[in-house]
Amino acid sequence: MKQQEFFSTRWALIISVLGIAVGTGNIWRFSRVVAQNGGGSFLIPWVIFLLLWSVPLIISEFAIGKYARLGPIGAIGKIAGRKFSWMGAFIVMVATAIMFYYSVVTGWCLRYFISAASGNLMNVENHLEYWNQFASGYLPLIFHLIAIGVVSFVVFRGITNGIEKFSKVLVPTLLIILLGLFVRAITLPGAIEGIKYFFTPDLNVILDYKVWLNALTQNAWDTGAGWGLIMTYAIYMRHKEDISLNASLIAFGNNSISLIAGITIFSTVFALGSIDTQSNALQQISQSGPANTGLTFIYLPKLFGQLSQSILINSVFASAFFLALFFAALTSLISMVELATRTLIDFGVGRRKAIIFVSVIAFLFGLPSAINMKFLINQDWVWGVGLLLSGAFISFAIIRFGVNRFRNEVVNGIGSDVKIGKWYNVLIKYLVPVQVIALVSWWLASSVSWDPEWWNPFHIENAGTVLFQWLIVLIVFIIFNKYMYQKTVENIK
Questions:
Q1: pTM for the full predicted model
Q2: What average pLDDT does range 487-491 have in this prediction?
Q3: CB 141 within 8 A of CB 227
């Protein structure tokens, strides 16, 4: 099957892939994790793991997608061999399972933008109660449907007329809004204290192994490395497009946006220390709240309402924040829907039928998360950890192919402007697997320590629920491995 559609330019590719990487994790999760891990002390291991985890995996995804011209199921089968298409299926499952509830979160962002733009959000006295009323009602269902509808329309239009055109509007607009919020935040009285906290390391905190593990977790979350999403967009790279330079631009561009968002939020929190003491403000920003929503949907709206005496000015600031958050969620959701759609296309389904099927399934399977917060928390826990296993499978596929051969023939092949050295071999063959083993072991061990019934698969967040759900999908995919390989790889030869 000959590749028919490509991104029109390198700029179009970069901006679209940046839309994958820049999501809600850059804006709300990053700031919360920084506050929980000692501020500036967290940034050092965070940057180190950008180089040790995100960069090599983003390079790998670009290279695999460009080489195989298939979604993760066919691509992993083509790279690792016919016995391992099930690994690609697991990668698809993880991203698709996240898509189901991420659409609900995208709907939340839209709802809060509308509330802020109307001025209603600034008149709220109890933001926790306001959130609880919204989350327990029927509105999340409606906004979940709107989010899926908008994204499905974009993906239906294809790569150049859909994803590329919308990314060219959404991503730059997102950056402009974030920069505007950044300028306003750092000019608030007392903002410098927040910036100092954000960038000042503490040696004692740096030596805490949990800070390093959290830094690796955050990198796995906010760059999009190992999700299979970049691999899917790379299918539409032009043959003479460089891999290594594109990957570097995405990795460092994404983390730069996280820094901008972090400075903005910490400046705002510390500037309003007269409302809450700074220690209490940090405690508030550190708390995850329902499904990690404490900072974004409960505490920050309260802060926005105190920025000035003018409700209009406060509404504008809050509206801009939630619009940026909505755009960030939307561009990431687009890539998840495209991955699921492309998977069906690889099985011979036309794009139109594929997107209709994906849209219906995404809405239906997202309903439990829209209705029940505990279900959303469970899925976020199970498949969030699953992202690490996805990264391990990508590394494994390259090792099976031959790391040095992969680097020379695929990464440094046609279109390569910047050649990647042997350091890549070491990272993919040794350090990425070690990081996965360490992090997954830590996550599961931690869940055992806080839950005496860690084996119970029906608890919300523990080792049992993760292993149980993983085991089910892995058994199914291994059983159907031969069929998947034949449909996605052999049928296109």
A1: 0.93
A2: 89
A3: no
